[in-house]
UniProtKB/TrEMBL annotation:
It comes from the Bacteria. It comes from Xylanimonas protaetiae. Signal peptide: none annotated. GO terms for molecular function: 3'-5' exonuclease activity; nucleic acid binding; nucleotide binding. GO terms for biological process: nucleobase-containing compound metabolic process. InterPro entries: 3'-5'_exonuclease_dom, Exo_C, HRDC-like_sf, HRDC_dom, HRDC_dom_sf, RNase_D-like, RNaseH-like_sf, RNaseH_sf. SMART domains: 35EXOc (SM00474), HRDC (SM00341). Residues 226-306 form the HRDC domain. This is Ribonuclease D. CDD domains: RNaseD_exo (cd06142).
Length: 408
């Protein structure tokens, strides 16, 4: 009988080596941090904390940095919005982040533009780790247990509790050590060049374009098949967004999505009718009932020509794949064959499907392939949609063959 391998014991990481540092919130304190970081050696570990779910937007409320020889610094970007001196002091030093795409926009807001990035989450994905959260990757690479109990707290709180600061400091305590282990594994797997291309793509990624009709993301809107009701959703979303922005509160705390959809379904004619809806019966919503009812009234008064479409805004992309079989059976066949190719490459190289090739690029290729399908034309098509060189090397030839295959 073969026994399963033992799970390595994880040693809890409870305290930063240098203790919990004080938060730096003055120009004089920042100058000391800048000098210390400039005198350090090796990469700099970085992390950011936001107040998602509490505040409007994705502002950064704490920046954590750690470098060998400099120790850990916790910077408060509220009184210190310009942190560009940190970037100037570090020059072309590599920044180590976990899930860099989440933190880089916040760093950019404060004048920090890393010249080079190592993303430990992306590295873990390329290596085929089953779990890629920071705690899981720290446990896998170093055998250390990293608590994550404060990951969703309100980081705009001032002063920040010591326990939260300890958590924040520990997030960068061993990040460079994790980076070193993952870098060795990437080299051993022959994936270090892949990783370098991925890291650079994340570093240089432009900010996302503003979403068209963001109100359509209200949960439950897809169940409403009436243009007037959609107009109520839009009006309440806009009223909620304006109030949330003015009060600097997360929109979902101002008015939940379920309340918006409930009002759209009920179509109340007065504030009195509105507060009979369960989602508006609370004290806070009753107090603002007139405000919400005005939004409903505005939507109810719109002429038919001003009502939103049931189908949403037009898109330059293909339709939902579930519709392909009816609209274009050949495209549906191409998509099925192409997905099999990507799935096989994913299994062969132990890389998640979505990292082998961006799903949107694959769908666009299958819906409207080049006039002449060859490995070169497929490669050119995918390159124009952000595919990296390593992805093209893996996928272009097999995808070209799949796109030209005949249905069985």
């Amino acid at each position: 009988m073969t026994l399963p391998p033992e799970t390595p014991e994880v040693v809890p990481l409870r305290e930063p080596a240098g203790g919990v540092p004080e938060v730096v919130d003055t120009p004089a304190g920042l100058a000391k941090v800048v000098a210390a970081l400039a005198g350090g050696t090796g990469p700099v570990a970085a992390d950011c904390e936001r107040a998602s779910g509490y505040r409007y937007g994705q502002s950064t409320f704490l920046v954590q940095l750690r470098r060998e020889g400099a120790g850990t610094a916790l910077l408060d970007p509220v009184p210190l919005p310009d942190l560009s001196a940190v970037g100037a002091a570090l020059g072309d030093v590599e920044w180590v982040l976990h899930a860099a795409s989440q933190d880089l926009p916040g760093l950019h807001e404060h004048g920090l533009f890393p010249a080079k990035v190592f993303d430990t989450e992306l590295a873990a994905r390329l290596l085929g780790l089953e779990r890629v959260g920071l705690a899981a990757v720290v446990a896998d690479t170093l055998g250390l247990g990293l608590a994550k109990e404060h990951s969703a707290v309100d980081w705009s709180t001032r002063p920040l509790p010591v326990d939260w600061l300890r958590y924040a400091a520990l997030d960068v305590e061993v990040l460079v050590d994790v980076r070193d282990v993952l870098a060795d594994r990437l080299a051993d797997a022959g994936k270090d060049a892949w990783a370098a291309q991925e890291f650079e793509a994340v570093r240089l990624a432009p900010p996302p374009a503003p979403r068209v009709d963001p109100w359509r993301r209200v949960s439950g809107t897809h169940l409403l098949r009436d243009r007037r009701k959609l107009a109520v959703v839009r009006a309440l979303w806009e009223a909620r967004d304006a109030s949330a922005r003015a009060r600097d509160i997360a929109p979902g705390r101002v008015l939940p999505d379920r309340a918006i959809v409930a009002a759209a379904q009920a179509l109340p004619r007065t504030a009195g009718q509105l507060v009979t809806i369960g989602e508006f019966a609370g004290k806070g919503q009753r107090r603002r009932a007139a405000y919400w009812q005005r939004a409903v009234d505005q939507a109810m008064a719109l002429p038919e020509t001003a009502l939103p479409s049931l189908r949403g805004p037009s898109s330059d992309g293909p339709p939902q794949p579930r519709l392909w079989a009816d609209r274009d059976p050949q495209a549906a066949h191409r998509l099925g064959a192409a997905r099999e190719v990507v799935a096989a490459l994913s299994e062969q190289h132990h890389v998640p499907v979505e990292n082998v090739l961006q799903p949107d690029a694959l769908r666009r290729l299958c819906w409207a392939p080049p006039a002449s399908v060859t490995a070169d034309s497929v490669s050119e098509f995918l390159r124009g949609r952000g595919a990296r060189a390593w992805q093209l090397d893996l996928t272009a030839g097999p995808l070209a063959a799949a796109l030209t295959s005949s249905p069985s």
